[in-house]
Amino acid sequence: MKLGDCANIIQGAFINRIQTSRLNEESKTVQLLTLKEFNETLGLSYRISQHKNTEVYVRKDKLSKDLFTDSISLVMHTLSQKVAFLPKKYSGLLLTNNFIKIEFINQVDLYFMEWYLNEHPEIQKQIVLFSKGSVISSLKLSHIKNVELLLPPYKQQKQMGSITVLKKKKEKLLKEKMQLEQKFMHQQLMNITNGSTREEQK
Predict the structure, then answer these.
(1) Backbone phi, then psi, for 97, in 5-degree steps?
(2) 65-102, pLDDT tens digit by residue?
(3) Cα(106)–Cα(175) distance, rounded to whole angstroms?
(4) What is the C-alpha separation between 67 and 94, in angstroms, rounded?
(5) Furthest C-alpha separation in the chain
(6) Are 75 and 69 in contact (CB under 8 A)?
(7) How far apart are CA 6 and CA 156, in angstroms?
(8) Which long-range contacts (CB under 8 A, 24 or more apart) does 138-144 make?
């Protein structure tokens, strides 16, 4: 079964085509989904520290609910080829053309599907093949629709989905632990340095 057979695959909006001025009576203010929220969901680091303005004015007639994030779909970033099941706090953000929404027709466990599309070796092989020959590694809509799936029954998906949630929580806690240890060691080194400096000044 292909992904396009069991899900609606929707490309995000090309902002330059729908963006307008705030003075336009037909405009609406929307917040964009960025890599910051996407990477945070997957527990990945986001290197750009400078805060970008993610609020834009767009034409109301060019907006449909399919172009916004929700808590019942997956989102794929076409450049990193990663998939995220966004939490509810990130619902209602406008998807730009670097993102694709995957809206399943049949019942699936989205936690399992996030893991399956991101980490299963057979899926990764297909993505590598589809990405070959591109200067910039990016997946096209047609490629995503043609990804072959072999899904277990829904009950097994639920079980595996629960395991992936626990796995992600554990990784997050280990990351936080490492950060705290680094802060503690840094403070210890600072205390020793400051103590040495005071001794020399006596």
Answers:
(1) -65, -10
(2) 899 999 999 999 998 899 999 999 999 999 999 999 99
(3) 35
(4) 6
(5) 78
(6) yes
(7) 18
(8) 138/78, 138/79, 139/76, 139/78, 139/81, 139/100, 140/78, 141/9, 141/11, 141/100, 144/3, 144/4, 144/9, 144/76, 144/100, 144/102
198/192 Cα distance (integer angstroms): 10
Instruction: Assess contact for 93 and 15: CB atoms under 8 A.
Output: no
Q: What is the pLDDT of residue 52?
A: 66
pLDDT grade for 179, boundaries at 50, 70 and 90: confident
127-156 residue pLDDT tens: 888 876 555 667 788 889 999 999 999 999
Q: Which residues pair with 56 in a beta bridge?
A: 30
Task: Tell me the pLDDT tens digit for each residue of 7-18.
Answer: 999 999 998 888
Which CA distances in Å does 19 have to 13, 63, 101?
10, 11, 20
Count the alpha carbons within 13 Å of 45 in the hemisphere toward its beta carbon.
6
Structure token pair of residue 27: 């405009």
* Average pLDDT rounded to a whole number, residues 14-24: 81
